[in-house]
Amino acid sequence: MTSDTPVTEKMARNGVTEASTSATSTAKTSRSSVLDPANFPQTLESPTIYISLVYDPLDIPAYLKFTRSAKAGANILFLGTTRDNFDHRPVSRLSYSAYPSLALKSLYAIAEDVQKKHGLEKVAIVHRMGEVKVEEESIAVAVSSGHRAAGWKGAEEILERVKARAEIWKKEWFADTGEMEEGVWRANRDRDAQGNILEKSNA
Fold first, then answer.
1. Where does the chain bind substrate (predicted)?
2. What beta strand segments (E) does 30-121 contain?
3. Shortest CA distance to 8 belongs to which of 39, 47, 30?
4. Tell me, what CATH number does 121's domain have?
């Protein structure tokens, strides 16, 4: 999977290619320009790891195609979708923001670490930016492994670490306050794996 992002700089380091757009290569660029959808997708990848931030709907078949391996008997896919409620309040939509350059590096580091820990063949992590409507996917985590136990554990650990660490935040709009409401910023990690709320205050 190759990004269409206009590239001004490429660095090869330990088999990893990092593409930096003109919007992210200058400290003087405004945050709104950094998050301009025209500058996406932004990607970090190696032969066994694919990381991307996108504004478009997730291309799920492409991620599964990337992680497929002749050595893998298990292919695990997790899709995080926008639910219609939070803490008993109706949610109309979410919007995601990030520090792209930092988020990409954090996601890659997570993928690399968990890949080694669980012996995964390949890993793909893709997160959407901007508005994500109810029932639409905001994140895809795909992994392949020799056997299913490693795949299940690896995918779960990746997701938990992404939500806890990656420089990505979400803003919720509640249907009971109307569309004129500014929305509520939250940390990406608002619930644990069992659905228990971890963070109620604004992020």
1. 147-148, 163, 170-172
2. 42-45, 49-54, 74-81, 85-86, 89-98
3. 39
4. 3.90.1170.40
In a domain, 102, yes or no: yes
Give pLDDT, residue 202.
37
Which residues belong to the annotated binding site for substrate? Answer: 147-148, 163, 170-172
Q: Which parts are annotated binding residues? A: 147-148, 163, 170-172
Strand, coil or helix: 200? coil
Q: Which helix (H) or strand (E) holds 162?
A: helix 148-165
Going 61 to 72 to 49 to 133, the CA torsion angle's sign is: positive
The total number of structural domains that make up the chain = 1
pTM for this predicted structure: 0.76
How far is residue 92 from each of residues 10, 54, 133, 180, measured CA to CA in Å? 39, 21, 7, 12
- pLDDT band for position 29 (cuts 50, 70, 90): very low
Residue 151 backbone zone (phi > 0: left; psi -120 to 50: alpha; other: beta): alpha
